[in-house]
């Protein structure tokens, strides 16, 4: 079976290459049509798709025809014409099963699985998506496999089986992380965060995963990911009752989604903001947003958004005493729910008809495949010789390149190790000097001050308070230079003492979260992390004018994640300081093989993300 598919692939390259230029132009046109659809230009989009479908049919290009049919089906589904979209998908799958390239079939099966799941046909959806994933796994295409795990997890979650979804999302996470696929890793973190919220898991872990997802999307400048990440954080903060943070992230999501034309997400986030305003008793703003979403949802046939918008409008008008309006929207909501039940009955009848038609087509396909297998035997001999020749050349070329890359990697590794050793020596020397000064202050200067205090008690009692204040200040300086609790009890306890000192001022309230930090790190790493957090908080205290801040440390396998957030005035990238504190921070991170990212803007607060590999 594998051999036959391989021969078909070689035949496709050798014999059908002249039509590739046509395929590429068609692909570009269909991508343009999909972009127009997402921006709300449905009529222009479908015209392009139908034109490309007619071209493919006229040229006898079955693969291009199947691809155009898939885009036409997506257009029908996106615009609320679900029955027509599903019928086109069924027809496209029948045609795709004739293609030697099974990837087209797998992609169609994935689309049909998604649509079947939306219609509560979960058993059929799981069958299709597992069949698609089987093709992806055999192709060894990591990105397709990642998306397959994503789809399987999503369908299990949608079917009310989140415990079955979790293993597939974890496979997606591990594969994306090991392959350094940052976009897919961002999606995986968001998937797990949403799933764990459904399973009522640790809110701090959910928050941490949402933050990591947004950080990755920001790092690769993935606008869609940044819009979705901020939207998910807005929903998370809404559930946690942190309405100011929910509003901030919601408005940021709306801004990014509007800029890239992601209209569906704009409406989704406006529903979230409408719920935030309801919770804050800002009823006029809530009903205004819900009304805008309702108008859009009715124009575009989005039933889910209509349902949520009608619910918020009923609650909002009831809260401001307009009970007639509230009752009218509540009645519309009931009518909509009743119509959905009727539509489901009709859809079940259509499904039975579709299954009957499909069974007839499958018989025709089986006969055609028997004839195709006979023809493939003649191609097999030529294909085998060609494959063996190509394999030998590729293997020889790959081995030569691998030797060159290995030598370059060894040289780079030695250079990096030398730089890190130098930085470690500098940091270690700095900490030794801090320790020495702290000891001198504690044992020497503090001892002299104690003796001075005894003499003052006899000769100048009015100076006793000044002596006590001086001794207290010396002890504080000594503690900051080398915190004793860090050495005795570890990083979380030392940071709690540090946060308590800040909170006692009453000017800034800091929330410390330590997730999976029970096991102690190496002493040098703990000390460096303490200094990193200290320097980041110094920047918050001196420059941000914030009233609230968050410090979050979370450990995951060999990775340590640090997040420092504040609700202050923020800064633009051009304003970032290059002072001694930031230079020291950069040196520590280089010595630890760590990375540092900022997310801030004027009057938007600041988020700082630090990642440190603990196995280096």
Question: What topology emerges from the helices and strands here?
Answer:
Blueprint (H helix, E strand, L loop, with lengths): L1 H15 L3 H19 L3 H18 L2 H17 L3 H15 L5 H17 L3 H18 L2 H17 L3 H17 L3 H17 L4 H17 L3 H18 L2 H18 L2 H17 L3 H18 L2 H17 L3 H137 L4 H18 L2 H6 L1 H13 L5 E7 L7 H22 L3 E9 L2 E8 L13 H12 L2 E7 L5 E8 L3
Helix pairs in contact: 1-17, 2-3, 2-4, 3-4, 4-5, 4-6, 5-6, 5-17, 6-7, 6-8, 7-8, 8-9, 8-10, 9-10, 10-11, 10-12, 11-12, 12-13, 12-14, 13-14, 14-15, 14-16, 15-16, 16-17, 17-18, 17-22, 20-21, 21-22
Total helical elements: 22
Structural class: alpha+beta
Strand line-up of the largest beta sheet = 1-2-3-5-4
Low-confidence stretches: 1-23, 342-357
Largest sheet: 5 strands, mixed
- Estimate the strand proportion: 5-15%
**Strand element count:** 5
| Fraction of residues in helix | over 70%
Roughly how many Å apart are the termini? 45 Å
SSE string? HHHHHHHHHHHHHHHHHHHHEHEEHEE
Mean pLDDT: 78
User: Which geometry do the CA atoms define?
Assistant: flat
Rg, rounded, reads: 31 Å
Describe this structure in words.
With 616 residues, the chain is α+β, with helices and mostly antiparallel strands. Helix content is 78%, strand content 6%. The protein has helices spanning 2-16, 20-38, 42-59, 62-78, 82-96, 102-118, 122-139, 142-158, 162-178, 182-198, 203-219, 223-240, 243-260, 263-279, 283-300, 303-319, 323-459, 464-481, 484-489, 491-503, 523-544, 580-591; strands at 509-515, 548-556, 559-566, 594-600, 606-613. Helix 6 runs antiparallel to helix 7, helix 15 packs antiparallel against helix 16 (303-319) and helix 17 packs across helix 22. 32% of the residues are buried. Mean pLDDT is 78; it is low at 1-23 and 342-357.
